Amino acid sequence: MVSEKIDYRLIGGFLLAHILLYFTFQDKNIFWYIFPASLLVLTIWTILHEDVDDRISFIRYISAGILSGLLLYGLFHLGNSLIHLFHLPLGDNIGRLYKWFAPEQFWQYIALVLIAVPGEELFWRGFIQKRILKRFPSFWSIVISAAMYASVHLYSSEMILVFAAFVSGIVWGLLFAWKRSIPLVIVSHLVFDLLLFILAPLY
């Protein structure tokens, strides 16, 4: 049953995310300076307002995280292959996204691994989805939080990035609703990003 009480911390955090990501996507030349800083702010917001969930053992969240990250990357790889097979114009968008937003310098990869990935999962799953779970069934918490996660990517002006964020948000939302483990979704996100940006880029 949906609670009638307004969750001002949830609303405030979501508005803060929109403000921060709006400025993050404004200038691609300074994206990697603003993005980690924005995630640090959202991480602090999460720590101040919500406890971190970790309900499974180290071995289980490492193995499940690696496997789910590989499967999500496989899903994106399949989608990319279909785009090129049918000569869809989205292929150009993917290349442009890599050019604009993919990390290039060593410190950017460090920021991705140590700040961006943990920060996104702490905020979007560990704060946003967790608070939505208090008001809605698991299914709707996954869909709503994934839509909220995708919404901040609208400022990139790339709908394929918005769609990718929604799909990945669904997967990580499912993992969090299933095991209630932030380390699990962080490992999954990290494996996915390492494949996407370093080991096997989709371009």
TrEMBL record:
Cited Pfam families: Rce1-like
A single GO BP: CAAX-box protein maturation
Domain annotation CAAX prenyl protease 2/Lysostaphin resistance protein A-like: ranges: 104-194
Transmembrane segments: 7-24, 30-49, 61-86, 106-124, 136-154, 160-177, 184-202
InterPro entries in UniProt: Rce1/LyrA-like_dom
Source organism, top-level taxon: Bacteria
KW Repeat (keyword) present: no
GO molecular function: endopeptidase activity; metallopeptidase activity
Alphabetical keyword list: Hydrolase, Membrane, Metalloprotease, Protease, Transmembrane, Transmembrane helix
Protein name: CPBP family intramembrane metalloprotease
Species the sequence originates in: Neobacillus piezotolerans
